[in-house]
Amino acid sequence: TTEGDFHLLLTNADISPTEKFYQFAETLLRLRKSKAIGINPMIVDKKNLVSRTNNDQMSMELKHKIAMELSHQAQVTIEKGKARFQSDTNPGHDCFVFQSSILDMINFGDMFLGYPQWGGAVHFMLDLIVDKYENTSPKRYGTFHIGEQRTWRTKYNSNDISSWKELGNDELQHLYSCPLILEKSPPSDVHTLQNLMNCGKLFKSRPYRDTQVPGFVQPGYEDVYLSKDTDHLTGDYLKQVFLRTRSVFLSWLLTPV
Fold first, then answer.
1. How far apart are the C-alpha atoms of 233 and 235, rounded to whole Å?
2. Which of 52, 214, 64 is nearest to 128 (CA)?
3. Is residue 98 within a helix (H) or strand (E), and if so which, with residue range?
4. CB atoms closer than 10 angstroms to residue 159
5. How far is CA 166 from CA 129, 169, 188, in A?
6. Within 10 Å of residue 38's Cβ, how many Cβ atoms?
7. Which helix (H) or strand (E) holds 155?
8. Among 4, 18, 116, 239, which residue has the least CB neighbours within 10 Å?
9. pLDDT less than 70: residues of the chain
10. 108-112: long-range contacts at Cβ-Cβ below 8 A with a sequence spacing of 24 or more?
11. CA–CA separation, 86 and 215 (whole Å)
12. Is the whole model's pTM more than 0.85, yes or no?
């Protein structure tokens, strides 16, 4: 990194680093001269762990001891090669390490961690503007998640959408611009809905010279964004995102309450 630069880490609270994660991340950034990396988590199945029952009557010291025991068992499971990844098509974007100078390039807006689609949005933004961004699935020194309940997954309930229908059109129209809206039903969870609207604010296009750039590009870095060798740059692409998400959103409006 340059003088005064440092590294930032964004991740979910249920993601655990392996014992050598930080050395691995620093080495990857330095040797490959990467400016940002996304680390996809390994899944450690609960059947490979022996856990004592946790309850509210336990002291914090005992809860901490149990957590450390589980972490150690998970490490052993990983070292034995028994951990796995979610899938190639859905690796789980939930941990990122990048140079602080990227904050000058990307406006992260109001998106908050822990709710969809923050990880996909950060992965998308880094991939679109950072010259040396690498998404990786390390099999030993990365991160892990115990179990795969996937309780974070967006809840869709066509009978419970009153929370978002009470919002004003100005707010709801931000959904048009979020490229991560692919579902056929609206989220019933108000926090997920808010994050999707926040996503839309970041990807909403704005004019720049004779083309358009998404809103997450900080002023002064438009040419950096446009020089990136990717298919997702042109105003035509942003228009396609708008049309696709608008069609999904209109189907939500027709959902009976």
1. 7
2. 214
3. strand 95-99
4. 9
5. 35, 9, 12
6. 23
7. none
8. 4
9. 1-4, 51-56, 86-91, 148-165, 182-188, 229-257
10. 108/202, 108/216, 109/198, 109/201, 109/202, 109/215, 109/216, 110/198, 110/201, 111/195, 111/198, 111/199, 111/202, 112/195, 112/198
11. 31
12. no
Residue 122: alpha-carbon gap to chain centroid: 5
Q: Is 43 exposed, middle or buried (0-12, 13-18, 19+ CB in 10 A)?
A: middle
- Compute the distance between CA of residue 66 and CA of residue 19 in angstroms, rounded to an integer: 17
Tokens 């108000």 sit on residue: 190
Lay out the sheet containing 95-99: strands in order across: 7-11, 95-99, 36-39, 133-136
pLDDT digits (tens, 9 = 90+) for 196-231: 889 999 998 899 998 889 999 999 999 999 888 655
The position carrying tokens 């020194």 is 141
Return the structure tokens found at 33. Answer: 């001269």
